[in-house]
Design goal:
- It is built from 18 helices and five strands.
- 59% of the residues lie in helices and 5% in strands.
- The two termini are 44 Å apart.
- Strands 2-1-3-4-5 form a five-stranded parallel beta sheet, sandwiched between helices.
């Protein structure tokens, strides 16, 4: 658990360091509560707030150690409510660190297990009080805290990686371990520095002077960390790709699939095919491909190598038929799609070819003569056909989940509205199919997936309604 960390670049460390200091400076009650030993449990959102959660955990540890208070229990929460049953204290009082959707979605579960809880939000985009409706004490930065930092680079890279010591994967990706070690060092460094700095701003009444001082000190903090070697500035794309790929390799190793040549070949082909494809709102296109494959392994516990290969290649024919056709060496007048599918059949077998064929949207769905409603209806009918094939259903379920569960990350309201209208009618198709999927998924997994899709459905409905009001 300890080795699974997010990694941030220099700009992101500036933002999160600024927010940590600002959080302490603008919320004296939070510091007083920690000094009194109020919290015996720290609950960290493991999907997006691990770094900020560990910073808060370190700050609590530092203060508790000075005051000879027993350490708080730390739990990393990623949607598994059974984890809350592991709370050790008979009178649990929690400090919860997480993002908006995490806290809103699971607030009732928290109330069930905790006598009291206070909520901390490290939010980069907006410093609004998003937790007051929950009826618990909340602590957020005094303001947005971005200062001169570029908001487009202010989001942390939520890509964790687990590395087993001495494993072949760890040897292949030693660079990843170095990044993890830097992140650990930086978490400790920011925790100590934040406690040193936050009191400096209490005496500054002028907001402009206050933010100037904060910006100056955070720049010095990040500069010192760079000099110490805790930050190695690299682009988000490099770091995210590195950690996603490492995580995928580790997932494969854990289930004995790392040495499967067909998976390695499919991965190489996908990297090449999609490297120049237009990025999605949540990053380079290859990230989507890797997440679809990882979800099957990690969340759905599907270990069939042909299904994993199909996931890696699921968009290859639909989006990159021409490139794949060129690999086939077929110089006939047949369509690029047919050449591409023949290449897949020749290299990966009939089953993978069948799945990829079914998953590829019919070309007529892109006809300019069809309006958006007609295209959405055609898409729904296509999905209804796909879910009848168990293999194609599994891959499409992971693909669709990656699309619909990431809608909230889109900053383009028009695009999000368009996709919400496209996906909303289809969510029920997947939920209905899951009711009879016990032969390919465990009931526990079915229930977990349905819950996520039902939440996505509600969020899509709310967003559509909010846009129609506007």
């Amino acid at each position: 658990m300890e080795q699974r960390l997010q990694t941030l670049n220099e700009f992101e460390w500036q933002a999160i360091s600024s927010q940590t200091v600002e959080l302490l400076a603008s919320n004296p009650d939070l510091v007083k509560n920690i000094e009194k030993g109020k919290y015996n449990t720290i609950l960290i959102d493991d999907t997006s707030s691990r770094v900020s959660g560990l910073i808060m955990k370190n700050i609590v540890d530092i203060i508790y150690e000075k005051r000879d208070i027993d350490k708080a229990q730390v739990l990393f929460f990623a949607g598994d409510r059974d984890l809350l049953k592991k709370v050790e204290s008979k009178d649990p009082v929690a400090l919860v660190v997480g993002n908006t959707s995490f806290l809103k979605k699971d607030s009732e579960a928290f109330r069930q297990y905790f006598k009291d809880l206070d909520l901390v939000s490290f939010t980069i985009d907006k410093g609004e009080d998003v937790f007051s409706p929950m009826g618990s004490k909340s602590f957020i930065p005094h303001r947005d805290s971005m200062g001169h930092y570029d908001p487009s680079r202010g989001k942390s890279v939520s890509t964790g990686v687990e590395l087993k010591e001495g494993s072949s994967v760890a040897e292949k990706v030693s660079d990843s371990q170095q990044e993890i070690n830097r992140t650990r060092q930086m978490i400790k460094f920011v925790s100590h520095k934040a406690l040193e700095l936050y009191q400096n701003y209490d005496q500054i009444d002028d907001e402009v002077e206050r933010q100037a001082a904060l910006s100056r000190d955070v720049n010095l903090l990040v500069g010192e960390a760079s000099d110490l070697g805790y930050i190695k500035t690299r682009s988000n794309s490099y770091l995210r790709h590195l950690f996603l790929k490492t995580s995928f390799l580790n997932d494969l190793e854990k289930v004995g699939l790392l040495e499967k040549e067909e998976i390695g070949l499919a991965s190489e082909i996908a990297e090449e095919l999609h490297k120049d494809q237009s990025p999605r709102s949540d990053g380079a296109y290859i990230y989507h491909i890797l997440r679809v494959a990882r979800r099957l392994l990690e969340e759905y516990e599907v270990f069939d190598p042909e299904i994993i290969v199909s996931a890696i290649l699921h968009d290859s024919v639909e989006d990159q038929a021409k490139k794949l056709a060129e690999k086939s060496g077929d110089e006939s007048n047949r369509s690029d799609r047919e050449k591409a599918l023949d290449f897949i059949k020749e290299n990966f077998g009939n089953r993978v070819e069948r799945v990829v064929r079914k998953l590829s949207n019919p070309e007529e769905m892109e006809s300019p003569e069809m309006d958006s409603e007609e295209k959405n209806q055609a898409y729904k009918e296509h999905i209804e056909e796909i879910v009848n094939d168990p293999d194609a259903f599994l891959v499409k379920l992971s693909d669709f989940s990656d699309n619909v569960l990431n809608l909230g990350y889109s900053h383009d309201s028009d695009k999000r509205l368009k996709l919400s209208k496209k996906y909303l009618p289809v969510i029920d198709v997947f939920i209905d199919r899951l009711d009879s999927a016990q032969d390919i998924l465990s009931q526990k997994k079915i229930d977990e997936i349905k819950e996520k899709l039902e939440t996505a459905s509600e969020e899509a409905k709310d967003f559509i309604e909010s846009q129609e009001v506007l």
